[in-house]
């Protein structure tokens, strides 16, 4: 199958490698470009970190590395892998759910967290008695047009499925596809969650939603994984 991958780099290239391992061809169309933001380390040290994107690890800078001795609650597996690669040893993977990561931290007795986040961060209800100090360490800029290769392939009906990883990228893809004159009714889109699918809007030929918010489940929902059972 030929798959359009809309997530930012370098994650898009990592997804392309994973798809190639499954026998699929990826066409990359990153719809968001991330860049670092200057941030100030809080005066009072937290008990642990909350990291909701691997981009925060990429753009956190030297200040982030000073916290490597602390436990870290990562929202998803990609973020957890990035943290371990950066030298963090005590990393808990929240399975793609911010609320679950916070609940795990609460159960461990953590009451003060430093959240390293993007400008368009995910918000969640905090457990009673927990405080979270948010620092914006990166921002994402929207693409203004679809890459030419993606636009041509979509118009020619050469894309079997479009992978959507975030609500923001889903909104951008829908808007740019409409602007390019791509027929929604000809496309199968696969979304990381129901929220992402809702952000993409209506009118698609088929919408698949991952059972859990991680890439393996997204691949399965999109029909990219063969059932060997």
From TrEMBL:
Residues 14-219 form the Tetrapyrrole biosynthesis uroporphyrinogen III synthase domain. GO terms for molecular function: uroporphyrinogen-III synthase activity. GO terms for biological process: tetrapyrrole biosynthetic process. InterPro entries: 4pyrrol_syn_uPrphyn_synt_sf (IPR036108), 4pyrrol_synth_uPrphyn_synth (IPR003754). Coiled coil: none annotated. Pfam families: HEM4. This is Uroporphyrinogen III synthase HEM4. It comes from Glacieibacterium arshaanense. The lineage of its organism: Bacteria, Pseudomonadati, Pseudomonadota, Alphaproteobacteria, Sphingomonadales.
């Amino acid at each position: 199958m030929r798959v359009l991958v809309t997530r930012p780099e370098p994650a898009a290239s990592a997804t392309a490698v994973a798809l190639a391992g499954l026998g699929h061809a990826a066409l990359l169309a990153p719809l968001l470009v991330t860049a670092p933001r200057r941030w100030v380390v809080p005066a009072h040290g937290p008990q642990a970190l909350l990291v909701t994107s691997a981009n925060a690890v990429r753009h956190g800078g030297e200040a982030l590395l000073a916290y490597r001795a602390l436990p870290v609650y990562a929202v998803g597996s990609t973020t957890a892998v990035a943290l371990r690669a950066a030298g963090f040893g005590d990393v808990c993977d929240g399975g793609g759910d911010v609320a679950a990561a916070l609940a795990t931290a609460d159960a461990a007795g953590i009451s003060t967290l430093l959240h390293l986040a993007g400008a368009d961060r995910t918000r969640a209800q905090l457990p009673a008695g927990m405080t979270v100090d948010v620092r914006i360490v990166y921002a994402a800029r929207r693409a203004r047009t679809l890459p030419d290769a993606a636009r041509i392939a979509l118009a020619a009906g050469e894309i079997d499925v479009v992978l959507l990883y975030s609500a923001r990228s889903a909104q951008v893809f829908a808007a740019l596809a409409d602007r390019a004159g791509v027929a929604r009714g000809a496309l199968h889109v696969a979304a990381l969650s129901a929220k992402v699918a809702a952000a993409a809007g209506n009118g698609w030929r088929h919408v698949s939603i991952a059972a859990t918010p991680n890439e393996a489940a997204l691949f399965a929902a999109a029909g990219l994984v063969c059932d060997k059972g």
